[in-house]
Amino acid sequence: MNNVFVYCEIEGTKVAEVSQELLTKGRKLATELGVELHAVVAGTGIKGKVEDQIFPYGVDRLFVFDGEGLFPYTSAPHTDILVNLFKEEKPQICLMGATVIGRDLGPRVSSSLTSGLTADCTQLEIGDYDDKKTGIHYDNLLYQIRPAFGGNIVATIVNPEHRPQMATVREGVMKREIADPAYKGEAVYPDVSAYVPAEDYVVKVLDRHIEVAKHNLKGAPIIVAGGYGVGSRENFDLLFKLAKELHGEVGASRAAVDAGWIDHDRQIGQTGLTVHPKVYIACGISGQIQHIAGMQDSGIIISINTDPDAPINKIADYVIVGSVEEVVPKLIKYYKQNNK
């Protein structure tokens, strides 16, 4: 009882990367709390095909719900699976991805269990809490940390009384690390009909369309990102040329996306992607907290900006004071001459 649970999303029989990232974090939280890490996955034809994708992350117990109508995802059956399972197991923490599925499922489960839910967390930690109003001291609560009020502050949210403490986390925020390739926990295969009533299957998915990603920003070792200071769509062409020379990808801040200079799927930040490249070249990006939340863990940060006092310069390893039109063509020329 009172263990840490992670809801694992699947596509067919493949476990989502965000779920494996949360298993990594869940393992650390469970170890700190001295409890077990449990996971739950639901789908069709998944028995014997998902266990090896989950156990190496340090999962002690895996609940596999395998039945017709559980894939593709629909709200009602998955909600009832978690609600009924959590009533039995009484976990203290539940983590799930801040994905289309997680943003639909999380609120339904937390509402049914009258527990709290913090969306889009950027950090998860264990800590104590003193309620100044009641004078009650709480040990080992989940600190659910996320930007708030448009990213102007970072809020730490706790849920002292209700369980489970639920949080969603966007893909790429946590690092995915295998605890032990040979780690073997216990697999449990519950009877789906005992958790899901027949009327839950009233909604059926008739057709699904999945588009392959046009880029690999999340896995790119080098990212050249542009902000409003780039100035125009044409100037973004310079960033694409530089990225090509560096064998990297092009990203952008929300301001550049809102200006229509680049596609939304390249947006980095609180409302976009979270990336961890070895080198991040920020061109004309002021460095608002919303953007920094999505790239602050980059290995080396290089800032190109006309403003020497731009906020991003405070976290940059190297600062080049100048405009994109001045600096980027020189970088392109240099790498063309020196790239082997």
**Please, what is the CATH homologous superfamily of the largest domain?**
HUPs
Basic shape: globular
Highest CATH level, the class of the largest domain: Alpha Beta
Helix count from the secondary structure assignment: 8
SSE class: alpha/beta
Q: Beta-strand percentage?
A: 25-35%
Order of helices and strands: EEEHEHEHEHEEEEEEEHEHEHEEH
User: Average pLDDT across residues?
Assistant: 91
Helical proportion, percent range: 25-40%
The CATH topology of the largest domain is given as Rossmann fold
Q: Can you tell me the number of structural domains?
A: 2
* Rounded radius of gyration (Å): 22 Å
Number of strands: 17
Gap between N and C termini: 58 Å
Question: Could you explain the architecture of this structure?
Answer:
By secondary structure, the protein is α/β, with parallel strands linked by helices. It has two domains: 199 residues, HUPs (Rossmann fold); 117 residues, Rossmann fold. Helix content is 26%, strand content 26%. It has eight helices and 17 strands. The strands form four sheets. It has a seven-stranded parallel β-sheet, with helices on both faces. A five-stranded parallel β-sheet has the order 14-13-15-16-17. Strands 8-9-10 form a three-stranded antiparallel β-sheet, covered by helices on one side. A hairpin with a 6-residue loop joins strand 8 and strand 9. Helix 3 packs across helix 4 and helix 5 runs parallel beside helix 8. It is globular. The N and C termini lie far apart (58 Å). 41% of the residues are buried. The mean pLDDT is 91.
